[in-house]
Amino acid sequence: MTMTSGPAKPTAPLAPMGAIHTGSGDPLLLLHGFMMSPHCWEQVADRMSSHCEVFAPAFTGHWGGPDFDGWYLDVSALADRVENQLDELGWRTCHIAGNSLGGWVGFELARRGRARTLTAIAPAGGWQTPSVLQVKVGLKFLSLVPVVEVGKHLPAAIAFSAPVRQAVAMVLSKNTAAAPRRAIEAAITSALHCRAMLPILAGALRAPDIEDLSTLKTPVRLLMCENDRVIPYRAYAKRFLRELPESADRIVMHDVGHVPMLEAPDRIATLIAEHVYASRTRLRAV
Predict the structure, then answer these.
(1) Which of 12, 178, 259, 273 has the fewest CB within 10 Å, making it most exposed?
(2) Is 258 one of the annotated active-site residues of the chain?
């Protein structure tokens, strides 16, 4: 399926978003992926705001997020900043849902005792340091550096043209027609404004592995995306499947790509809400 073409210019001016903060109820933290921004959570946040107080911040070094010093940036530093934001909100603990890099940061926050529940959506970090898997995913992102650098100098008519939007949608989604044009344009803009691209790739080479997951006390729901072209779950979810406690939910989401919030916000919102509800009532969702 293909995306509609339409005019080449963006549908509406896209501004940096420091955070989404909306709704009332149980505190819910939404964490975006590498080179993305809180824009990717807009549809899910809207659906969750009727029964949760939703906070979706921009990571350090990402579009809309705070700047940083130095050549390296790792998951621990990203989690430090998010913890400070939670403290400012008065959230000692909260429910967390994170996609890709956001899932990795979510595991770090859970280890620090900040998560009531964790919904990890196509989480990164399920590799040993160093390992072939780590090198492969690093090279995949490293190959995007010249593309991003060229993209920074292109006029909007080209950078947001239908072929570019279609290519980006195919990387992030399975059903590209279901991903809103605004969301894809936000993903392009986020990538072009990600100051942390190289520092995070460098930091990942120095950072320690995720600690042993078998002792994690936080209720975890692992969502694996069947058509993930970025970090295919059959290779990159093996450690999560092996180490997470038996009580953790393990779910394969069919017909979605690496960032399923773009094409299936209803399904993602439902799966997060189920996990939040199950933890409150001490029930296990199926």
Answers:
(1) 12
(2) yes
